[in-house]
């Protein structure tokens, strides 16, 4: 049973004294049979808590600097009309008491805490946003990550990896943007996709009759979940791991990239659609290296909380020399398998993450092969923030 | 000085006893020199409040049904590191105490209450969303409404009328959608735009060399504000109220529509871009009628709080017979001035407002002239919810 947390705030043009504010409000709480406790605040204004027999908690604060805040915590099963009545009564009375001194009244939608279905998935720049998710469709922990698929009324099913919203069925705009927003022609081309286990890019690309699309995705469970629950994104393309013009390799992309480099194999397009959260590591040259997928560093300076899913084998030694070196290594591998006239396409980060984006662009300038790049900002419906996509080419 | 309100919630698979949970946490609050008060909850679990000398308030609740919630209220000027440390300490300790019983840990971005710039503009279906607004660029009360323009890092300037976000400079997608998403050709056409004072539609339309575009917008102050601060939307088109192929009439659209009907004037396109909140009324047939702009009813069943700005002249009588009849009247007027082969284009509502959308479509079936319609769902960047647009034509 979830807790519903209501707030009601009055921003004032001048500070008010609690003795002129509080007494008139007390009867409203008393009518609800709520018991008052007045707390000592050492000069920080009036702070009263009111507890009801039904478990309700109200907090009334008359701050010392022109702000009155009210909190009300009740339960999901409680009578909404009764809650509304209490808040309406407080709002009406405060409007009268504070008349002429009010610069803003703010009564926000309730914060729902501990609900069955979690609707709060903050943006990359750490803003609080409530989604319209109404059902947990699927959840499983794979060897690599926590996989959730949640249903949204307006976005369809949404894939959430390690609590990071990856893609929803509404998000064709993402797929089109990472494919170059219609500027690229994939007919007869060789394409390598890193990540892309939701099948969105593949599903769009095969329509253009490419020569061969190779997807390298590490997590079979993501593919299976998307095949079943994200058909608005992948259609039926994931029903088979191999088709006339595509193959899906369920592998870590790093050794695959290295093999391609050794063989001298090149691609007309490399599309990096890896999840922004690093999920694999591989042993290398006698010791173990934590492998940060390409875009990890974009998150280094973000407010995003991140979980590293390290799969440490016994007696392996964890060595992280320089995150930036690893990142350049991966980017270099991708550029190495790119045909001289090819394009490397990838998602970047939220438009607001200007520092991270700047660091990424700095890295592009430090590759062993000089590259040029362009970027564009796209609105992906379920993201609730503008997103930057990059096109990179060899100079 | 704003209040920062942090929450930290543990959803549990089974209820826990407070005696096994609370004692280990007390030292964390005591280290911050916070004074504990334990409240009687009549069987609703443990509820403790902790007040610090700096005005901090923490609330610890061990609910009786498998949920532990922590609230922390501090001030904007307080030491963030100290806040983080306290929340980290509580989260770490609770992870240990509740080990094996946790189904979700949720620590949301702080709710900022009473800030200079308000960043919370709930969606039409009343979800809590935090924007990245960082500056109040303009605010004024006109005779019709409160007008605000707020700056957002990613959306540019955003026009907010009566606390309803209308349009941001990023929202070309809105303008293109209400113009028919590229399916219509305005070259040489006669167009009537109701509302549209931000100049977005006009600015796009003149590129197609229409014969004449007439905008009827009631509020000069909105036009002036957009001319100055929404140039990403209107360019320089609002610098003159009249041009080679357009005129902007600063009037209530109802008498203008009636005049056109009387004159038998028709348009190839009528675009209804009126704000969803009704802002004018007009006297009619001896008594006063509250005029609800066309889309008002779309909001009737929404969770949106609405303010009616009634401009009551002395000794006028307020009569509202049937909202639906008025709405049909307005829609009828628009259809009456529409050329038989013309199109009526308008925004509808949020995709999630299914009931309101259904009621609107029902109204379309009750007009004096039979009409057909199509709709499409568009992602408007600053809206943070999918939006429905309608095309209507005479059968």
UniProtKB/TrEMBL annotation, chains A, B:
Residue ranges annotated for the PABS domain, each copy included: 119-394
Residues of the active site: 273 (proton acceptor)
GO molecular function: spermine synthase activity
Keyword Transport: no
Plastid keyword on record: no
PROSITE patterns: PABS_1 (PS01330), PABS_2 (PS51006)
Pfam families for the chain: Spermine_synt_N (PF17284), Spermine_synth (PF01564), SpmSyn_N (PF17950)
UniProt entry keywords in alphabetical sequence: Polyamine biosynthesis, Transferase
Any GO BP annotation: spermine biosynthetic process
Family membership: Belongs to the spermidine/spermine synthase family.
Protein's UniProt name: PABS domain-containing protein
Organism lineage string: Eukaryota, Metazoa, Chordata, Craniata, Vertebrata
